[in-house]
Amino acid sequence: MDKFELMLIIGVSISILLFILTIVSLIQFIFAKKKIKELTQSKPKDRKKRKRWKKQLRLAENQKSKKMRYVLFSLLGTLIIGGGTGYAKYYQATTISEQDTDNIVYSYYLLEQIEEQINEIDKKDDKKSSDNIHTLAISLSSFASKKGSDKSVEEAQILLNQYYARVGQFGVNISSQNFDALKKDKEKQQEYLNDIKTVKKTQKKVIDYYKINESSLKEKK
Fold first, then answer.
1. What is the distance between the alpha carbons of residues 88 and 121, in angstroms, rounded to a whole number?
2. Under a CB-based contact definition with an 8 Å cutoff, are residues 44 and 55 in contact?
3. Residue 8 class from Cβ within 10 Å (0-12 exposed, 13-18 middle, 19+ buried)?
4. 14-31 burial string, b = 16+ CB within 10 Å, else e?
C-alpha cells in the first residue's frame, strides 16, 4: 500500500465518521426541538415553577443551537473531505503514470511503423525491410513482460496489462516469422495486419480511458 492509497483510506474513514456524527447530531437536534415544543406547551403558571421552566427552556434552546452547529459543521466536513477523497480517487483512476505514458507512446510508434513495413513489403529492399521488421518485432515483444503501474486502479491496470500482453504477443508472433516467406504470403501479411487492428482496438480503449490526445501520439511517431 503506497501513501496515496493510505490517504484515500483515511479520507474515506474520516468522511464516514463525519457522516455518522451528522446523523447523530441531527437526531439530537430533533429531540431538542421536540423538548422545546413540549416545554413551550407546558408553561407553568406558578412563579416558582416558571423560573425552573425558563432554565429548562434556555438549556433546551442552547442544546438545539449547539446540535444545529454540529450538524452544519459535520455535514460541511463530510462534503469537503468526502468530495476531496472522491476527486482524488477519480484523479488516480484517470491519470496515467509517466512510465505507462512512455510505453503507450513507444508502442504506438512501433505498431505504426511495423504496419507501414508490412504494407510496403513489396516496395522495399529485402534485407533492409527484413531487418526493420525484425527489430520492430523484437521491441514489440518486450511489452509481454510489462505491467500497468501499481498506482492505477484495478480497472485501469487490467486494461493496461491486456494491452501490453496483446502488443507483446503480436511482437513474439511476427518476430518468429521468416521474412522471405512473409513477403510471398499475402494471406499471412493480411493476417498480421488484422492482428494489428485488433491490438489497436485495445490501444484505443486505453487512449479513450485516459483521454490521451491521439494527435500528439502521431506527432511523436
1. 48
2. no
3. middle
4. ebeebbebbeebbebbee
Whether the CB-CB separation of 78 and 13 falls below 8 Å is answered with no
Record the cell numbers describing residue 116, joined without a space.
507501414
pTM value?
0.63
Using one digit for the tens of pLDDT, what is the confidence trace for 152-164? 567 788 899 999 9
Which residues, in sequence order, are CB contacts of 93 under 8 Å at separation 6+?
Answer: 152, 153, 155, 156
Q: Which long-range contacts (CB under 8 A, 24 or more apart) does 126-135 make?
A: 126/179, 126/180, 126/183, 129/179, 130/179, 130/180, 133/174, 133/179, 133/182, 134/175, 134/179
Residue 182 cell numbers, joined: 512473409
- DSSP output for 91-131: HHHH---HHHHHHHHHHHHHHHHHHHHHHTTTTS-HHHHHH
Distance, in Å, from the CA atom of 37 to the CA atom of 118, rounded to the nearest integer, reads 85
212 vs 4 pLDDT, higher one: 212
Q: State residue 156's pLDDT score.
A: 80
Helix extents (H) in the chain: 3-41, 47-94, 98-119, 126-141, 154-175, 179-184, 186-209, 214-219
Contact criterion met (CB below 8 Å) for 75 and 17: no
Q: Residue 63 is placed in which grid cell?
A: 442544546
